[in-house]
Amino acid sequence: MSVPPKRRTASSARRRRSHDALKKTTLSACPKCGKATKPHMACAFCGTYKGKQVVKIKSTNEKKKK
How many angstroms separate the Cα of 6 from the Cα of each of 2, 41, 56? Predict the structure, then answer.
């Protein structure tokens, strides 16, 4: 196996790691129910996306019966 010719400097390693930081999640309000949702994702509470019902959400009564 070959050996790297030079040691990676601390500043070079930190510069490389600068993109590893966690970023804040952006949230927007659902136009139908007003709950916070991620952009370009269906609402987890009411199941709508772009004003259309795309996911059938079970009510809390149906969940409790199971």
Answer: 12, 46, 58
Alpha carbon distance 17, 31 (integer Å): 38
pTM for the structure as a whole:
0.56
Per-residue pLDDT of 4-60, as tens digits, reads 889 999 999 999 999 999 999 999 999 999 999 999 999 989 999 998 898 888 876
The residues spanned by each domain of the chain are 25-65
46 burial via Cβ count (<10 Å: 0-12, 13-18, 19+): middle
Cα 7 versus chain centre, distance: 36
